[in-house]
Amino acid sequence: MIVLDSQPFSLVEDIGFKAFVSKLNPTYTIPTRKALKLMVEKRYDEAKEKAMAEVQDAEYVSLTADMWTSINIDSYLEVTCHYITKERKLATVLLGVTRFPQSHTAVNIKEAQRVCHIRCFAHTLNLVVKKALDQTPTPELQYIRLRAKSVVTLFRTSCKAKEKLCVVQEMMAAQATVSSAPTDGENLWDLLDIRVSEAQRVQSATADAAVEVK
């Protein structure tokens, strides 16, 4: 409870907590604040050794960094390790937490971790494709991109059109791929992945929605 709920060790000294435990089991002796601290430290050491052994046995690991602010407005940086166990289950282990009083910039985060900053490959690849498409002087391609974005924008901004699309998709046993696609152009594949099979559903929805795709 101390760890899961982020409770202070002084909880065992609170009058209300003592009364609550006494109601549950009058014969139970609540550990002292010092004894509780030693118990938590022992569990921490055991969990740390177990996590280190699993990480060492993992074939691949993925590290993520996150920033958060405590209730006292103190900024922290934490590094988490993700890996697949021998039982083929996804596991996550917190490797460390440190104070981070600087501005939350990529340069400061990289310096705090003392590691090379490698951007997300999928995001970088998407930016390359996006830039290439932006520089492609093909009117037909640009027209398709604009039309696809207009269709997605329509179903994300018009309640009437979206409701009609949902009805049509349910009738045709389809997934709501059109209304959930992005419109900001950051993920072009999802934006343009309005398959041919969706054409009939989109046409049916827009025809009765009293709206126009520009």
From TrEMBL:
Location in or out of the cell: Nucleus
The protein's matches in InterPro entries, at most eight in alphabetical order, are given as: RNaseH-like_sf (IPR012337), ZnF_BED_domain_contain (IPR052035)
Report whether Nucleus shows up as a keyword of the record: yes
A single MF term (Gene Ontology): zinc ion binding
- What keywords would UniProt list here? Metal-binding, Nucleus, Zinc, Zinc-finger
Superkingdom as given in the UniProt entry = Eukaryota
Major site of localization recorded for this protein: nucleus
Identify one Gene Ontology CC term for this UniProt entry: nucleus
Question: Can you name this protein?
Answer: Uncharacterized protein
